Amino acid sequence: MSRDAAVTVLLLPGLYDSGPEHWQSRWQAQSSADTPLLVERVVQQDWAAPRCADWVARLTQVMQESSRDVVLAAHSSACAMIAHWAREAPLELLMRVRGVLLVAPSDPLATAYPSGPTGFAPVPLHALPFPGTVVASRNDEYVTFEQAERYATAWGSRVWDVGEAGHINASAGYGAWPDGWRAVEAMAAAPHCRVARHADVPALTALIDLSVRRLAAGYYTDAQVASSLAHVFGVDSSLIHDGGYFVLEQHGEIVTAGGWSDRQTLFGGDQFGTRDDARLDPAMSPARIRAFYVHPDHARRGYAKRLLGMCTAAAERAGFSTLSLMSTLPGEPLYRALGFVPDARVEYAMPDGTTLPVIPMTKSIG
């Protein structure tokens, strides 16, 4: 089976588990006959008064028992658990999450929240390193719609407003929930993420050429594009060697690439004339976000955002609290939307005398 098809939907129930008519249980029951996706419930030892850390450890254990990519489908308190898990999970597990459906994310500080569970509060308000959708009800006793929106904003997830739907469970009429299942199927169809290999260089070279030529149109002249491909934009072998370059692959084709580095060089491929491979001190310098390229036919699908989430998680685990990058003109709106702050535009002079306008940008992740 190809990596595109090898996906498991991990069901993460909230407190007291999910009963037989709950959408999670219905999805699990239908999985063998009606869908090529595997569906597995993550069974916790304590459903009534759990420690969040135990639920986090159990999710890690389940994912380590398989090499398949996953879609996480969480309900209630399991949503907060995922926010905690994402802060500490190994990168190799985060890469395998194609998306997460966060349904009715209970607020552990709400008056109605049970007193038994521990460690779920405070809920981490930090961007998740994978795509997410928060499904929110306007009359949920365990979380206000406004709080669910705040979670979604902090997690970098979109909001799916289902109106007055209670706690979005069986008692609210959410049994088979076909709309929810279609959302899971869409997430499962996302590309596979992995670390780039030196064998990828020919494919990466072709991706970079195509991305620069087509996505820079209207921002740079033909002469600037040609000169930048000759002197600036290209594969940086050091990123691959250091293990900090990630790719998204679909149907055997690399559709997006991007990475991070703890070296001084801010931009440019192997042919770039001004390079400095000195290591950065995380306490003094920002990590570098490097070499993001998207296949034009796959642009505006959130793929660059997904890889930036992986790069951010990797930089944080290396001790960095700030990111920096050198943006092209077409890339600047994306990075600004993702929280990067631009500095004054720079006119970079290339060896043939052509200049390339680029924009230094930074972002705090501490």
Textual characterization of the structure:
The protein is α/β, with parallel strands linked by helices. The chain folds into two domains: 7-188, Alpha/Beta hydrolase fold, catalytic domain (Rossmann fold); 193-364, Aminopeptidase. It has eleven helices and 14 strands. The strands form two sheets. Strands 7, 8, 9, 10, 11, 12, 13 and 14 form an eight-stranded mixed β-sheet that branches. A six-stranded parallel β-sheet has the order 2-1-3-4-5-6, sandwiched between helices. A hairpin with a 2-residue loop joins strand 8 (245-250) and strand 9 (253-261). Helix 2 packs across helix 3 (77-88) and helix 7 packs antiparallel against helix 8 (222-231). It is elongated, with a radius of gyration of 22 Å. The two termini are 40 Å apart. 44% of the residues are buried.
Task: Jot down its keywords.
single chain; 366 residues; alpha/beta; Rossmann fold; Aminopeptidase; 2 domains; eight-stranded mixed β-sheet; six-stranded parallel β-sheet; 11 helices; 14 strands; 31% helix; 22% strand; elongated
